[in-house]
Design goal:
Length: about 675
């Protein structure tokens, strides 16, 4: 069985508009382009290449036979051997009348341009051939050697390669400037890439668009109020906080809070990511930090927002190469100096967000740099209801959609997950051709997001289907009969994603968990494998993720939470994250053996109790599995019909159970049977 954790992604909102460009050149001011000069010079060179050529008389290339024939017939007036490579043949009046009747000779008896050209091979052999063809002639034609240089072509041979190289260099420099420096020049590579939002920039996100984060909003709104009404605080001697760090799981709305600040503060707002400081060139990150704070000080009071600050704020000295230059550490050192160094930095508030606060440098987290740390947690049931209200503003909903019911159906969901649920529900309703979005569409969307798309055409043999049915029935039975296990709502053996079966539970929203609660959850998790052992006498590989889950739970009970009698009230958990980079464990080898032994004892004890429960209620297990094979989907009322009501069920469970129907129930805590 594979226990799928709920995904946590960022809250989505409208894209911010582009920042203003205060120094932008007016559109109606035309600039002279030097490319016109380049084009004119190139055209002149091409014209010089062909200048002076007379194209009236055609120049035709001839072979050796035709050339000898012209000589023997006394039709040649002159032969010019150009650069000892090409023979230019000029015809006399006789030759012109015969071969070119429309062309008349000049006063010198021939034309100004050659009539034919002949490509020679060996120079000596060519002279002998001309003499042999004119033996016995009274006035033979002699060869004139001509040296001719085309300076325009030679000039082009030099200019064109250099011109192409210069053009390529200009394009490369402009590309590097746009990609790294910003203003079209490589010399701007050290400039800040932050986007500026000011009073002239339209930012559509306000505090009204942020739901489910009431405590975080109170602290953020106080910072905004300080910027709007500083006298209210300064008259009492208070000072503006230098830094506010937003910490929380992915998708809980940290970036959304920052966008709301940009929309509410009415002061210059610089926004960029931590990765924008780091480049392949040494010193670029520190230079960009200096430029960013220089621009911010010139516009103070203002706010700088650095998203994913862990990209540059990671603790120094971790994994560093001895003698090497760490560009990221140089950037962090400059950031520390700018936030609270020797110089003054009044009027600039640094707002940062991260979900890895445990790896940040301690010098960055101290008071004076980040005076406040605001924890943005997953929303509770009230917060989820408010988030549903925000994302349902533009949806066409049916009358059966109940926000409170949907909030109860999505424990552990972040704001991004809820936004995804609303979007998937709209897509499913549109796919079915509906005019409105109904309750069933939302429940199907939860199933789709958590378990994946249904694969009803997946080929499964009858024997495999039976094993999967008893496996899922084992989970359902043990969870129903245990007091602290999560109550089941729906079980299906329809394949979803990579899973062959799934079970939906309604986990209780707890702040603390007791040893008995964790132990009962482990028994319910092992109920699938136990059912295979009880019914078939053998086990399969379908419990891989179940074993992974219970092993981690048992290890946490023994080594983290101090819930084992033999280990005692000791915890080897390191909240600072330093153990991740340590080569040694915080306990001895003997203690490690004891931990391994106790983990194995707890898991095996839970497995034997699961077998005992299913053996005692084997008839009910068989009825449940057969019903699952027949209908492929069963619900909480089916278990109640077979095993009776849970004697320890609370009122909330009863309300949800009564609201569940055979057509629609889905929960985020899910078990999968893997092939």
């Amino acid at each position: 069985m594979n226990n799928r954790e709920t995904r946590q992604a960022g809250n989505q909102s409208d894209q911010p508009s582009q920042p203003n460009q205060p120094n932008k050149r007016p559109k109606d001011k035309r600039r002279f382009s030097f490319y016109w000069i380049y084009a004119i010079l190139f055209a002149v060179l091409i014209g010089l290449q062909f200048y002076g050529r007379d194209t009236i008389t055609p120049t035709e290339k001839i072979d050796q036979g035709k050339f000898i024939e012209l000589l023997k017939n006394s039709e040649v007036e002159r032969i010019d051997l150009v650069n000892k490579q090409d023979a230019e043949v000029y015809l006399n009046q006789k030759g012109l009348s015969k071969h070119f009747p429309d062309v008349k000779a000049t006063e010198k008896g021939t034309t100004t341009t050659p009539s034919y050209t002949y490509k020679i091979g060996d120079h000596a052999r060519f002279e002998e051939m001309v003499e042999e063809a004119q033996q016995g002639f009274e006035k033979p034609v002699y060869i004139s050697n001509v040296s001719r240089n085309n300076w325009a072509a030679g000039l082009l041979e030099w200019i064109i390669p250099f011109g192409l190289l210069i053009v390529f260099w200009i394009i490369l420099m402009r590309g590097m400037g746009r990609g790294m420096g910003g203003a079209g020049s490589i010399f701007n590579i050290g400039k800040s890439r932050a986007m500026l939002y000011d009073k002239n920039t339209n930012v559509n996100v306000t505090f009204k668009d942020v739901a489910g984060l009431e405590e975080a909003k109170v602290e953020i709104m106080e910072v905004v109020d300080f910027l709007k009404n500083p006298e209210k605080y300064t008259k009492l001697g208070g000072k503006i906080p230098k830094g506010v760090l937003l910490v929380g799981p992915p998708g809980t709305g940290k970036t959304l809070l920052a966008k709301s600040v940009a929309g509410e503060a009415n002061v210059p707002f610089f926004s960029l990511s931590g990765s924008d400081f780091v480049e392949m060139f040494v010193g670029v990150g520190a230079s960009r930090v200096r430029d960013l704070f220089g621009n911010a000080k010139s516009k103070s009071p203002c706010i700088i927002f650095i998203d994913e600050i862990d990209a540059i704020g990671r603790a120094r000295g971790r994994g560093a190469i001895t003698g090497g230059n760490d560009e990221r550490e140089s950037t962090l050192n400059q950031l520390l100096t700018e936030m609270d160094g020797f110089g003054t930095n009044s009027g600039v508030i640094v707002l940062a967000a991260t979900n890895r606060a445990d790896i940040l440098d301690k010098a960055l987290l101290r008071a004076g740099r980040f005076d406040r740390q605001i924890y943005v947690e997953l929303p509770d049931i009230v917060g989820r209801k408010e988030i549903f209200e925000v994302h349902m503003r533009n949806l066409k909903l049916g009358n059966d959609v109940n926000l409170e019911f949907l909030a109860k159906q999505t424990p552990g969901f972040s704001g991004a997950d809820i936004a995804n649920v609303c979007n998937e529900a709209a897509l499913m309703a549109a796919r079915k051709g509906k005019e409105i979005i109904e309750k069933q569409d939302f429940l199907d969307a939860v199933d789709r997001i958590i378990g994946g798309l249904e694969k009803k055409n997946k080929i499964i043999t009858a024997e495999e289907k039976k094993v999967i049915a008893f496996h899922e029935a084992g989970h359902a039975t043990t969870s129903w009969l245990l007091q602290y296990a999560h109550p089941l709502v729906k079980v299906t053996i329809v394949p979803r994603g990579n899973s062959l079966g799934a079970a939906w539970y309604l986990p209780e929203e707890r702040q603390i968990t007791t040893k008995e609660q964790m132990y009962h959850e482990m028994i319910a998790t092992l109920g699938g494998r136990a059912a295979e052992q009880v019914v078939f006498g053998q086990i399969s590989t379908g419990a891989l993720s179940d074993l992974e889950k219970v092993t981690k739970q048992a290890f946490a009970m023994v080594s983290y939470y101090g819930l084992d009698e033999e280990i005692g009230n000791l915890s080897y958990y390191d909240s600072t994250g330093q153990q991740d980079y340590s080569l040694t464990k915080p306990y001895s080898d003997k203690t490690a053996e004891t931990i391994d032994k106790r983990v194995s004892v707890i898991v095996e004890k839970a497995y034997q109790e699961a077998i005992a429960i299913l053996t005692e209620h084997r008839d009910g297990l068989t009825q449940l599995a057969n019903k699952l094979i027949e209908e492929e989907v069963i619900f909480g009322e089916d278990l109640e019909h077979i095993f009776g009501k849970r004697p320890w069920g609370n009122s909330e469970d009863e309300k949800l159970k009564n609201a569940a129907s055979k057509n629609a129930e889905s929960q985020p805590d899910i078990e999968h049977a893997n092939a």
